[in-house]
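Sample 3 of the quickstart, ligand magnesium ion:
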Amino acid sequence: MTSFKSLGLSEQILKAVTKLGFQIPTEVQKKVIPKLLKKNTDLVALAQTGTGKTAAFGFPMLQLIEHSNKITQGLILSPTRELCLQITNEMNLYSSGIKNINIVAVYGGSNINEQANKIKHGAQIIVATPGRLKDMIRRKYVDISNIKYCVLDEADEMLNMGFYEDIKSILSNSPKGKYSWLFSATMPPEVNKIAKNFMNEPTEITVGTKNSGAKNVNHEYFIVSASERYDTLKALVNINPDIFACIFCRTKIQTQRVADRMINDGYKAAAIHGDLSQSQRDVVMQSFRNKKIQLLVATDVAARGIDVDDITHVINYQLPDEIETYIHRSGRTGRAGKNGKSVIFLLKSDKRKIKQIENKLQKKLTLLEVPSSEKIFHSKIFHWIKEVKNTTFKNDLKNHIYEVKEAFESFSKEEVLKLVLSREFNSFNMNQEEVNLKNQNKSDRRIGRRSLDQKINNKKDRRIGRRSLDQKINNKKDKDRFFINIGLIDLPKYKKESLKDFLKSFLKLNHEDVFQVEVMKNFSFFSTHKNHRNQVLKYFDNLIVNKRKVNIELAKKDKEIFFKNNFKKKRFNSKSKYKKN
Ligand code: ADP
Ligand code: MG
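Result:
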């Protein structure tokens, strides 16, 4: 068995390897690390996502640069801001045993002067997205004329995203004698072009078969019409209550729409796409990593390279044009030896694509049937039982257990279970009703989709939402009021109404459990039932928005009045000032 030590890594790096808990090197690490350490060479390495490419270039780069020299010696280019931050983070972990090393991330959408400042203090390694780096070179904030090593990570994607010209311009500012290491999951012609035009007899390394998907991913598909996609998605999620999925759509609008509908229907979902601000994207990604969001609806570009472990399903809500893109998508799951599923919602007109994918993967795809309502129902009960069994008894209820016991003294265990189940059953029944309504829709084509959904939602509101909401609001003793330092300025793309939904979706509660949300400029108030207090307070632990820690606390009545008045006053003042001028 090959060990990290036998690859020729220094003590400092081996220490970090132990700290990281890496036991044995991955295939690509085994092949790449000794090559780069032994001899200065250009390199093209092809390996699937999740195979440990970051360490394959990161370890050698950290070992080969001169730590005592402050000038920039290593450059790592990556397609997206998320990936750029992820690589910087990994590199910092890899270099935990090395003194005096400075790794700086350079990416768009964030303050350029702050980044320039960090570089001024000496950055031996810069991790950058092409657009921002080009800009910083032009403004002379960054000098890459002395770099020795240049990594093009996820090269296929950078080129897909149209960075060819930027990369060309960046490389023209770098010295001829540097060594370039290109990493990619696939080898489309554009990547070949880069290798040919900018590299010198690169060593080629391929791990696994070229362009093939990860081994432990099962590929499955439903045949649906466009209008059946959403219901199929819900059925799939309902039957897999522990799902942790990335759902791919083709456009930003579709991505947002699917996420909004899921949130509205009470799922823990969020969208990520290029129209969101940086801070919104950060919040979404952090929540997904922490599993506060179960369903991340994404465009290909926004999700690219994101390394989130444990994704159980990749769902192709819409198939991409390129089979390569499908392969990338499915690489988000089945990582680190775990099993994953890549599910396609296939339109009949796209049937021929199945063969193409099968050919590419050298694997058969399995046709699935949309689960029946009966099956979904069964799965929900099963999940509920599991959740109940996993509940920890809250000690503060200890004194009440006798009251409850006494109240049910004359009931058998079965009778109690029946009653508890029937109470829970209400919501299951709701779903059954939804299914029935939707089936009705199929036979009655005249009813538009929207009006049907409205009907369902209205029904929901009337039956459970409204009633329980009113009860909650009226019963002041039972509710907690919270203050949170997130407001419209933090998430500028949101209107007041949708920020309400945003806050609701971030709490690990049902949609209707968060109420009386009042959104202000830079803070908000909301209420929940008292039972949820600890959950809510804990929930926002360690969450960072716009580089500041989210602060949540129980709102005091006088504080709330003060804040709200102050807020109004400020607005009034600024208006009157404006008039005077
Ligand atoms: P890629 O760039 O090929 O998509 P990453 O470098 O992002 O893959 O690595 C994927 C995950 O595997 C990361 O969480 C990383 O920390 C982990 N990893 C990398 N190398 C090893 C290893 N030798 N043993 C265990 N985990 C590893
Ligand atoms: Mg990578």
